[in-house]
UniProtKB/TrEMBL annotation:
This is ABC-type quaternary amine transporter. It is an enzyme of class 7 (translocase). PROSITE patterns: ABC_TRANSPORTER_1, ABC_TRANSPORTER_2, CBS. It comes from the Bacteria. Keywords: ATP-binding, CBS domain, Nucleotide-binding, Repeat, Transport. The keyword Repeat applies.
Length: 386
């Protein structure tokens, strides 16, 4: 969808903002450009919509050289979201959102209908917010309007220049979550500029880590964190990159342990005897369909059925959730393990994740990326004894 071929930007004073840049962004991919201030990431993004013209090289949009496209027409095909939003203060939220459809000559009613649909999509009820003015909105709400406006003409490409940088951390995290949800629905090709490596890791399908005017590493977040290309990237992503990697490493079924399992309808005596035979003090409780119900302690199984003594399970996650969510869930519930289920199969129980298997999953994922092999092929070495 977007392709840079040997693109450079040198200013009149001799400053080389971007130096011989070549990379591609696939259709529907969200790529984060991350690096320190002045490294060229914003210049890179602004060259895509010709707010800045390259000194040399070519940029292609869906196979078309953008230098041959009228700049105004090009910009109307590309959504653009900036940190300060840039809403028109004299226009309502609905009018702001309908700006680009209006410029493209849409009928007024069609533009307003599209604007209302987009406001609803970004979580702003048009009946409540449509007639308000920007000054009547919070910072986070204004950012949502900015995203809605950028999407109003249904552009294939979205450029975002530190869009969530001007809001507090709590709102920022919420906006990131909502944007990921939105991207799953609209599936745009996105270039997202940020100076925050954690934001880059959380949002990006791939990350471009910038040095001075150059991309030092262009890869999936897990690979950047697990196998930095050079000392500069390692230093930039931080010594805690192992912790950051938790957020981009999913739980896989092969990571799970299989604890004792009993059924709701089992008699307490039968279940207790089975657990005793396995030397287990607890067991996972499933319903008649094999779906997760809860857990039970062997000390409670004195009479009746398992259903009489089972406790509901609070610490659980779907397979595919991040190891960061798993670790957070363990801490939140003060749990020594969490259950993992298959949500696509109505909650079918798959196994449990413990602190030890979580650590192993992280080590296996890091080793797999470093050696370019599947996680299932990684054999971990474990040191025993001191």
């Amino acid at each position: 969808m977007i392709r840079f071929e040997h693109v450079s930007k040198r200013y009149a004073d001799g400053t080389m903002a971007v130096d011989d840049l070549s990379f591609e962004v696939a259709a529907g991919e969200l790529v984060t450009l991350v690096g320190p201030s002045g490294c060229g990431k914003t210049t890179t993004m602004k060259m895509v919509n010709r707010l800045i013209e390259p000194t040399s090289g070519q940029i292609f949009l869906d196979g078309e050289d953008i230098s041959e496209i009228d700049p105004v027409q090009l910009r109307r095909r590309i959504g653009y979201v900036i940190q300060q939003v840039g809403l028109f203060p004299h226009k309502t939220v609905l009018e702001n959102t309908a700006t680009v459809p209006h410029l493209l000559g849409w009928k007024k009613g069609d533009g307003k209908q599209r604007a209302a649909e987009l406001l609803d999509l970004v979580g702003l009820d048009p009946s409540l917010y449509g007639d308000r003015y920007p000054e009547q909105l919070s910072g986070g709400q204004r950012q949502r309007v900015g995203v809605a406006r950028a999407l109003a003409a249904d552009p294939p490409v979205l450029l975002m220049d530190e869009p969530f940088g001007a809001v507090d951390p709590v709102v920022r995290e919420h906006l990131q979550t909502e944007f990921l949800r939105l991207q799953q629905e609209v599936n745009k090709t996105v270039l997202f500029v940020t100076h925050d490596i954690e934001e880059a890791v959380r949002l990006g399908d791939r990350i471009a880590v910038y040095g001075q005017g150059r991309i030092e590493q262009y890869d999936a977040p897990a690979a950047v964190l697990g196998a930095p290309a050079n000392p500069y990237v390692a230093d930039f992503v931080g010594s805690d990159r192992g912790l950051k990697r938790l957020s981009v490493t999913p739980i896989e079924e092969t990571d799970l342990e299989q604890p004792p399992v009993v059924r709701l309808e089992d008699s307490a005596k039968t279940a207790g005897a089975r657990m005793a035979a396995e030397g287990a003090s607890w067991a996972v409780v499933l319903d008649s369909d094999g779906n997760l119900h809860g857990w039970v302690s062997s000390g409670r199984l004195l009479s009746g059925t398992v259903a009489d003594h089972a406790r509901r399970m609070e610490a659980w996650l779907p397979v595919g959730a991040s190891l960061k969510r798993a670790f957070s869930t363990m801490l939140q519930h003060d749990a020594g393990w969490i259950a993992v289920i298959d949500e696509s199969a109505k909650g079918r129980f798959l196994g449990v994740l413990t602190p030890a298997t979580l650590h192993e999953a992280l080590r296996r994922s890091t080793a797999a990326d470093a050696r370019a092999i599947p996680r299932t092929e990684v054999e971990l070495e474990t040191i025993t004894g001191v």
